[in-house]
Amino acid sequence: MEKSAAIRVMQVTPDWRPALLQLRVTAPQRDFVSDIAPSLDDAERCPGSTPMVILRNDEPIGYYRIEMHAASIAEREYDRPAVGLRSFFIDHRWQGQGLASRALAAAIDDLSTRHPHAQLLVLLVNCRNLAALRLYLRARFIDTGQLYHGGRAGPQHLLWRELP
Ligand SMILES: CC(C)(COP(=O)(O)OP(=O)(O)OC[C@H]1O[C@@H](n2cnc3c(N)ncnc32)[C@H](O)[C@@H]1OP(=O)(O)O)[C@@H](O)C(=O)NCCC(=O)NCCS
Predict the structure, then answer these.
(1) What pLDDT is attached to residue 45?
(2) If you take atom 11 of ligand 1, which residue's CA is the nearest one?
(3) Which residues form the N-acetyltransferase domain (predicted)?
């Protein structure tokens, strides 16, 4: 696992767009995450959606979105203030080095200033996506046991995690 590089996250600005458009997942992983170009376009149209870049030593290696309205994740409400995580990925060239775990920790840390009132972070993960499930469970997400059937590639687990 690579520990020496600095991993940080920041909100996407237009300057990042060309570099972000170079990021890819593997072909089978495309079932699990949207392509970045439509995701960036969609985030621009949705006022409650914040596109975020994952940087390794200032180089973009990944991406995610934070949804201010967690209800947009699985079409349900939560009894505590919640935000959603969507479209999280690490570029295929950088996978398998522990960088997603570090990026997720940085993303959670960032939420304490970006959405200080949020108590829960919620997300959907495809039932076949064992790598992502392992990542999230290691990061102290809890599987609610609820399945969401609205995805384009099969059922998804609804996970959530308490925010510090
Ligand atoms: C899921 C993803 C973000 C993991 O990125 P990564 O940088 O390779 O993950 P890490 O190296 O930090 O590993 C995190 C955990 O996942 C596990 N993992 C990573 N790839 C795995 C694989 N192919 N199979 C099984 N487990 C895997 C690691 O072993 C590690 O668990 P451990 O700490 O218990 O050993 C990356 O594979 C990805 O971008 N996938 C495509 C997009 C996607 O599925 N996003 C999630 C949408 S919900």
Answers:
(1) 94
(2) 98
(3) 7-164
Whole-model pTM above 0.85? yes
The pLDDT of residue 41: 96
Distance 148 CA to ligand 1 centre (A): 21
Judged by DSSP in three states, 25 sits in coil
| 13 vs 35: CA distance, rounded Å | 18
Q: How far is the CA of 132 from the centre of ligand 1 (A)?
A: 5
Residues with CB under 6 A from ligand 1: 25, 29, 32-33, 88-90, 95-101, 125, 129-132, 134-135, 138
CATH number of the domain at 7-116, please?
Answer: 3.40.630.30
Q: What is the mean pLDDT of each run of 10 residues along the chain (164 residues)?
A: 86 96 97 96 94 97 97 91 97 97 98 97 97 98 93 92 96
| HSE of 140, CA atoms in CB hemisphere, 13 A | 9
Kindly list the distances between the CA atom of residue 43 and the CA atoms of 19, 47, 74, 77, 87, in Å, as whole numbers in the listed order: 17, 7, 17, 21, 11
| β partners of residue 75 | none
The CA 35 to ligand 1 mean position distance, Å, reads 18
Atom of ligand 1 nearest to the CA of 29: 41
